[in-house]
Amino acid sequence: PAQRLKKQRAAKALKSKFREKQKEMEHAKRQNDWKSFAGMAGGKRKSAPVGVGSSIFATEEGVNAKVGVISGGGGGRKLTNVDQGGSKRHKFY
Questions:
Q1: Which residues contact 86 (CB under 8 A, 6 or more apart)?
Q2: Which of 26, 43, 74, 89 supports an S-S bond with 70, CB 3.0-4.6 Å?
Q3: Which residues contact 53 (CB under 8 A, 6 or more apart)?
Q4: For the segment 3-34, what is each residue's pLDDT rounded down to a tens digit?
């Protein structure tokens, strides 16, 4: 009986080490797959459009500079022209 127990314990230890090695190999494979995926995704990003190098919240220099999302960094676009004449549909007197 003592020899049988010793053999069983040795077999159990071998199986345990084998399972641990299998788990480590699977973990390493998943890790490598994820690293290759994450590295690939970073390389395929689209470049920023031309003229977007500055902040869109930047303001122009000078006394007449207006604060607005498009005023400084909007790619050369001007602020929306607001018609001071009022509503085109309704006339308010």
A1: 92
A2: 74
A3: none
A4: 999 999 999 999 999 999 999 999 999 999 99
